[in-house]
Design goal:
elongated; FPF1; about 110 residues; 3-stranded antiparallel β-sheet; Metal Transport, Frataxin, Chain A; 3 helices; alpha+beta; single chain
């Protein structure tokens, strides 16, 4: 049992410096994975292909700078920045929750 005792906000706890370093390395950057193929989604075109197979359509006429997809049989709407590099973990989790069996969010390598 190795580690460092840390006193913070009136609480003493044992922290493992190795675990903390590993957590910091993977914290932040996320990736959206299309579960059936195992491929990481890295562009709007790739995402659109996956979503179309699930019944989603590109919604035109929305705000400029925003890419939107809607599902034919529901009121669900997915809104993403037009620049895929600005898609964050909140957007990825929105896609994964609305398509539970087909997408998952993982720590980027």
């Amino acid at each position: 049992m190795s580690g460092v005792w840390v006193f913070r906000n009136g609480v003493v706890r044992l922290e493992d410096p190795k675990q903390k370093a590993g957590a910091a390395a993977c914290k932040g950057r996320k990736a959206l994975v299309h579960t059936p193929t195992g491929q990481t989604v890295s562009s709007h075109e790739a995402l659109q292909r996956c979503l179309q197979q699930l019944g989603w359509e590109r919604f035109h006429g929305g705000e400029p700078g925003v890419a939107q997809f809607h599902h034919r049989r529901s009121v669900d709407l997915i809104s993403l920045p037009a620049d895929f590099a600005r898609v964050g973990s909140v957007h990825m989790y929105d896609i994964a929750v609305k398509n539970r069996d087909c997408f998952r969010v993982v720590d980027a390598a």
